[in-house]
Write a structure and sequence with these properties.
The chain is built from 4 helices and 5 strands; from the N terminus they run E-E-H-H-H-E-E-E-H. By secondary structure, the protein is mainly α. The chain has one domain (2-142). The strands form 2 sheets. Strands 4-3-5 form a 3-stranded parallel β-sheet. Strands 1-2 form a two-stranded antiparallel sheet. Strand 1 (2-4) and strand 2 (7-9) form a beta hairpin. Helix 1 packs across helix 2 and helix 2 (24-41) packs antiparallel against helix 3. The longest helix is centred in the C-terminal third of the chain and has 32 residues, at 111-142. It is elongated and about 55 Å long.
Length: 143
Amino acid sequence: MFGIRGETVHLLSAAHQLAWTQHPTVWLSESSAILWLVLRVLRSPLVRTGVLLMLCGLGMNALVTEANAGSMPVVGMPSTVRPVSPMWHAATSHTRLQLLADQAQLGLFSVGDIILLFGATLIMAICLRRALKWGHRDHMDEL
């Protein structure tokens, strides 16, 4: 985060917005490539499931964003909420795929976000379990 002429610029938010609005296919391809690498390194049926869940979540978010001209609508967004970026806007009657949009009832998350987070949590749990198992094994070798 840095200031330009008195305005705060969030670099990560700006890069994310640019990727989604200008090059969503490239962003989705990069995300898929990273997940493919995770699959190659962590060979496990549960990791495969986690990666598939993450890809489904990313796909759902990409689909609703693409259907709404590059921005993510928010269903039930309170008038007191001000989006950090123009990438988000309040849903209207013209919003496409409202079911896949961010939902106020889900804490401003979308169904795709929740599926993506579930997949990521599954992968992280497996990595943590492996790390603890290896750490325990190394500790036992020292004794």
